[in-house]
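Input (Gamma-secretase-activating protein isoform X3):
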Amino acid sequence: MALRLLTHFDVRADVLPSLAAEAGDTGVLETAYESLRVLNIERNGNIIYTYKDNKGNAVFGIYDCQTRQNEHLYTFEKDMQAVSCSVNSERTLLAASFVQYTKEGVRSELHPGSKCLTLLVEIHPVDSVKVLKAVDSCIWVQFLYPHAESHRLQSHLLLISEEKYIERFHIQITREDGNRVVIRNSSHLPRDRIAEDFVWAQWDMSEQRLYYVELEQSKSVLKCIQFWADESFTLMFEMPLDISLSGLRFKFVNFGYDYRQDQEKLCNQPSLCVFTNHTGSLCVCYSPKFDSWEEVTYSVFYLHKGYRKTFTAAPGSAGSHVAKGITFLNLGCLVAVYIPGHFLHLLNIQHPDLTCHSLFLTGSKMAAVLPPSPLQSLPGSLVLDCSSGKVYRATVDQSYLMWFLWNAARLDCDKMAALHCALLCGQDPGFQEDQVIQWICEHASACHSFDLIQELLIASSYWSVYPELADVDKLLAHSSVLAWNEEIPGVMLVTEELPLLLMKVYNLTGYWAKLNSNLEYVKYTKPHLHYHNSVVRREWHSLVSEEKTGKRRSTMYVRNILDNAVKVILNMETRTLEPRLIPLLQEEDRHQRLLVGLMVSELRNHLVRHLQCVEKKKIEQTVLDYISKLLNLTWCMLETIWRKHSAHPWVPRLVYNISWESLPVVLRGTTRDNRVCGSHTTLLSLPSNKHGSAAEFEVFHLMTRILDATNSLCFPLPPGFHSLHTTLGVHCLPLYNLLHYIDNGVLLLTETAVTRLMKDLDNSEKNEKLKFSIVARLPPLLGQKVCRFWDHPMSSNIISRNHVAQLLKDYKKEPRNSMIGKSSFPTEFLPLNCFIEILTGLESSHQE
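Output:
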């Protein structure tokens, strides 16, 4: 299943045992079992339920999710149907609304002239009962909760009426005879009108917000009221929405579940809900009334991004019937759009720009994801199954996503979406990133529209630091793909820009400040502020070029860059708990350290420039974590491939004796056509032979892929990567291919790799040819160093030539007396005698 539902609360399993222990009467349990249902969930997560006892009385109880204990709240000694119930945070007051019907269908005698009765009860201890409303329209009740638990002397109660108004009651209480709570002046409770003439409302108990839609000049206007801890409230924003609510039965969301509603009729009505999360996202999910069962249309207003996306999906095969309405579920950074038995669409609300980052599943790919009964989405990724009374915590099932990637994902868009959904799980405690890495290592060449390795490096590094900094989504890229023009099978999409200038945010604190920041970014930031390595690329190439030619920058400048790299390496080592099989970070690799240090410097400057309110120390650590993650991902990919074949560490060894005929035909043909670089490398399936093991061939191929991916992004590699890559190349490739890889820049001749080659290989005819070919391609300075490790006349010749060239570099011709007769090395060739004398003199002067 794409979604995993973990039972958070089961009204029967968590309540009935407690009732059995208290009552000891099977008759009470049988009656309670039939009538037990959830009425409300308060801000602190406590769940209010009701049931009928064996006398038909309405009983209210509360389940504390922290202590997992049940508490009896109140018994109303009348046979009445409860519609709504709420208790204040101190559990001293209870408000409830009832529909007044007896078993015989006759109006209750408590208030015979009304259909709905709303009561306020003192329950600490149970004392007086006050009638708040007695009307013919339904009433829902909800106590407001402060941000901090406290023993206040005032509570506030919302009454939401089917007659399209919302009132707030101010309830003053006093304490008498110790802890006894009494309502003060209960006959005249102050009240104020919060909203009126609206057609839809939603309560967010977690954040104490009220969303509602008013019709102004035939236009639907979404508004939000925020209730504060100091008992005030503020209209936070209003936004016109281009939606039609015609045919909508007056509907409340998250004010409790109305068990009297006909679910068959509800599924044909428009559906609307609002989802937010702590990053400042604000999504309005809307589905109009179904005109045809052949296709389903739903829209998501990404208000924090400034556009609306309208999706049209075919719910099933021709003639199929959608028996249940569309369901929207808030999963944090994802929104699930679901029709039982037809499709599941996991929408990425944090990065909704490209459709390839959202996963669309139908038929057998979807499986039986969620219960078919009516579902109600709650804050904190909670889902209430209204029929069974179960509360679930919904999460993306990583094991299913990995199964989907291995077995069912055929299209690039499916692979991209499933990969991003899986990486979103990185914030969950049970996330296993090694499973994602293993799949990518096995399918590095499987996608044509994008590079899987690049996508892993960028996306995984992004999500690793995402929780650490606010606004990081505006400053760091989350994907290597900038545009996607391919269609997603089964769903059509239309994108429309929203007139954000019409959206007014009236308060800038907490979540609202983040939302406003998102809106300001969308309105005024062109182009976007995502970090890229173009400056690093230019500076790095300049530094490397200067080092090759012997030029030097300011010592302090280069030292600071290398110190940055040292910080990253130390950060990696502190986070590496298990011993590694692939030897990296064990050599200087100055060029890669320069690249690491430059990226630290540029990324730190980028974040400091745009996050001026964040401590520099925190930004510094975020930068180190981000780049450490990049390097560690590369290392983990190599480890994964090696562990597939061996549980022992890889020991560098050079046995170069591969002939052209020993390579597979596919490699021979490809390399002779000079197609060895980048994404055209064909080393994926090289078989093992007596020289290079299967593990070494696979690691070499993967390293070539990684090199191609990081080069285009100018991402650093772990120091030692190039030496290992070249060593494997010597071991796995014949001379022609090896030199071709070197000449095309795929293999780099590092000092460590070449020194190992000179030391480890003997002076057989083939090895001499290899060594000479390598030395001929080295920069002069490096060539002089490594030739000292090659005990061979050719090496001595090269050393002598370099020595003579160095002596003659500063030679100035001066008049000399003929010393031919005094020469210590007399020859018949007089000019040579003169040249020897000049060299002898130069050596003597250098020694002095």
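DSSP finds 23 helices and 32 strands in the chain.
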